[in-house]
Task: inverse folding
């Protein structure tokens, strides 16, 4: 992926040196927490239980136990590290693409803030944890990422490559786009009358749409800035394959329970990302109207 030298976003909040163990809710915003919690659960990029991730983090090779660190490194120095620059650049790219797409449709795009944290951090959706994987909180319109997640992707799921990492961000930004478009609200209110299985099915459609929207971003970013290099799309598809609910459940418990899917199977995630990246059209991402996902 070619990104060096492109614009970097200022909408990044670096909380990595805060070092508090989280706890509490940002600004005491606990109104509607039930709804928000559902949306939060639905927005995990990784369809895997927090306890599993915790055990992966603590049992992983090479002692990647950085989740509770943050012993006061210099903010400025840290903000210049290549990974932070990468995140800022990808976020800026999503801003440029979505601003343009919204404008063409007569709308104004308000970009999300991306929060870099380490261990745990307060959010309007409750305490955000490394163990949850990257997520989007509709309540404060922020994307939360602990960058140690990228090591986990690489070491545990053998997913590497910058574009696969960019896809993670683009997927979460996809949830923000869904929020801006009012789709999250609709899903949340529809979910109130639903059974657990129906809610999961709805969540799958929401997640696959975010995958498709990530693809739409990639299409336009590539048209405008030629970001894609040989093998990039494959690396994102590998990521989608590795983190489909079926693949994760097999790895986790040895069998697959389709009713408990919240993100879609590997094949579905691949299909919808491809759909977005080949068409570049938001309207091709209508996962709520198709019969077969
Ligand atoms: Zn998601």
Result:
């Amino acid at each position: 992926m070619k990104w060096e030298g492109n614009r970097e976003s200022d909408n990044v909040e670096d909380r990595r040196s805060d070092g508090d163990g989280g706890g509490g809710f940002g600004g005491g915003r606990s109104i509607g927490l039930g709804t928000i919690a559902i949306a939060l659960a639905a927005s995990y990029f990784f369809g895997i239980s927090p306890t599993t991730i915790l055990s992966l983090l603590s049992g992983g090779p090479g002692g990647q136990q950085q989740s509770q660190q943050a012993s006061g490194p210099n903010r400025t120095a840290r903000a210049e590290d290549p990974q932070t620059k990468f995140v800022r650049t990808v976020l800026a790219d999503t801003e440029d693409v979505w601003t343009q797409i919204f404008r063409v449709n007569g709308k104004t795009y308000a970009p999300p803030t991306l929060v870099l944290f380490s261990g745990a951090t307060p959010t309007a959706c409750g305490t955000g944890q490394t163990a949850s994987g990257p997520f989007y909180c509709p309540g404060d319109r922020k994307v939360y990422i602990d960058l140690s997640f990228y090591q986990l992707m690489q070491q545990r799921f053998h997913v590497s490559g910058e574009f696969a990492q960019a896809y993670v961000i683009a997927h979460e930004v996809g949830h923000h786009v869904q929020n801006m478009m009012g789709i999250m609200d609709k899903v949340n209110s529809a979910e109130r009358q639903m059974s657990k299985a129906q809610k999961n099915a709805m969540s799958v459609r929401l997640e696959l749409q975010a995958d498709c929207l990530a693809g739409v971003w990639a299409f336009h970013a590539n048209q405008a800035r030629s970001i894609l290099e040989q093998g990039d799309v494959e690396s994102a598809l590998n990521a989608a394959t590795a983190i489909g609910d079926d693949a994760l459940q097999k790895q986790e418990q040895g069998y697959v329970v389709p009713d408990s899917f919240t993100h879609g199977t590997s094949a579905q995630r691949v299909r919808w990302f491809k759909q977005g990246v080949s068409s570049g059209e938001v309207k091709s991402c209508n996962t709520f109207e198709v019969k077969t996902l």
